[in-house]
Amino acid sequence: MKNAVEFLRERECIDAVTSEELAEHVDKPVSVYIGFDPTADSLHLGHLVGVVTLCHFIKRGHTAYFILGGATAKVGDPSGKKTERPLLSQDTIETNARAITEQLKKCLEGEDQSRARFLNNASWWDSFSFLSVLRDIGKHFRMGPMLGKDSVRTRLQSEEGLSFTEFSYQVLQGYDFHHLAKEEGVSLQMGGSDQWGNITAGIELHRKLTGKSLFGLTYPLLTKSDGTKFGKTEEGTVWLDASKTSPFHFYQYLVRVADEDVLCLLKRLTFLPIQEIKELEIEMLGGSMEPFKAQKILAKEVTQFVHGKKGMEVALKVTQLLSPGSKTELDGELLKEVKNYIPVQTFARHAVVGFSYVDLSVKAGLYKSKGETQRAIKAKGAYLNNNRVDESSYLISDLDIIDHRYLLLGAGKKKKLLIELEE
């Protein structure tokens, strides 16, 4: 088995390393970390590169540290930001950190849990006073290198400028690396390419304080071939939290990825063997690949990693159900998910059971009139629970109610409407 660095290079997952000795360093088990600031109550698609990268290290016998930035989130990382982040309350940060920790643990359900560690940097920063930070840590940072960081230079040249609070962020993250090296034996920090300055700040601080070397590795940010960020839609961010971006919408975002981007995402966001990805590339370039084959593989693999097998199956079932002419077997859980994507009408049970399909369809707004409904039935285009309705006199019974609550009406192969009974 190739070591972690060689493996990541083959998958084009490395942007830069601080030393070429890193490849040899990871030939033996090491401890590695990535930080996640809880500035929201969910990670988004862009964070997934880091999570997957840590999992690659776990699979190769290393120990992965997932560091929640309970302290650094109070300051806000200026990297890649045009304006200063709004300050969050302590309660909000703690709530966000708990939610993100649960997300990360869910992604790791298929991994060796004994090789995953979860820490919050507030556990060591909360004991520091402002003066002790200036005296014991700040004196080791020189203004020249700090001002030379890309994120700092960019913001200093902007109209808004850069606050001292944000400017100090690299001091906090730099000390995090030193603390983790000293207390946990961590020797490698990883992050997106925009984290290079923060990572090297920690390496330099540790060298000054101990005389010992540490390593850094950055991976490319998740961007499309046109340079824009992945994980952004007209509706907003693609979150990992199912309550913010449903498994169906998550799956749909990935299945619509452009051909020129899908191979890159397969390398960076999945655990598919590189040989399988190369075979897909040959098939794609040769013009013999069926439409969206690679995208469907990507969407299935990543959705299952984030939302589990059950979430992936729901996403596939909803996709199939909403496809024209679907014959998907229905159940209450599936229809509960579907109601987020199609029109829903709510009725009391006594207003549904015993009524004709024709009357109910008009009352629910599926058809404009009884005549239109009857013509649809004659044309074999009226559906109840994915089954064709053949008689205008058909009456709705308790047996038609799915999970004691739902009915799915259909007009033709595309138009669907869900009826939900009041509890």
From TrEMBL:
Primary localisation category: cytoplasm
Motif, 'KMSKS' region: chain positions: 229-233
Organism field: Aerophobetes bacterium
Domain Tyrosine--tRNA ligase SYY-like C-terminal intervals: 358-418
Reaction equation(s) it catalyzes: tRNA(Tyr) + L-tyrosine + ATP = L-tyrosyl-tRNA(Tyr) + AMP + diphosphate + H(+)
Keyword vocabulary terms for this entry: Aminoacyl-tRNA synthetase, ATP-binding, Cytoplasm, Ligase, Nucleotide-binding, Protein biosynthesis, RNA-binding
Family (UniProt): Belongs to the class-I aminoacyl-tRNA synthetase family. TyrS type 1 subfamily.
PANTHER family for this protein: TYROSINE--TRNA LIGASE, MITOCHONDRIAL, TYROSYL-TRNA SYNTHETASE
Motif ('HIGH' region) on chain: 38-47
Residues involved in L-tyrosine binding: Y33, Y169, Q173
A Gene Ontology BP annotation from the UniProt entry: tyrosyl-tRNA aminoacylation
NCBIfam families: tyrS
Enzyme class (EC, first level): ligase
Subcellular location per the Swiss-Prot or TrEMBL entry: Cytoplasm
One Gene Ontology term, aspect cellular component: cytosol
Record: residues binding ATP: K232
Subunit structure: Homodimer.
GO molecular function: ATP binding; RNA binding; tyrosine-tRNA ligase activity
Protein EC: 6.1.1.1
Protein name per UniProt: Tyrosine--tRNA ligase
Function: Catalyzes the attachment of tyrosine to tRNA(Tyr) in a two-step reaction: tyrosine is first activated by ATP to form Tyr-AMP and then transferred to the acceptor end of tRNA(Tyr).
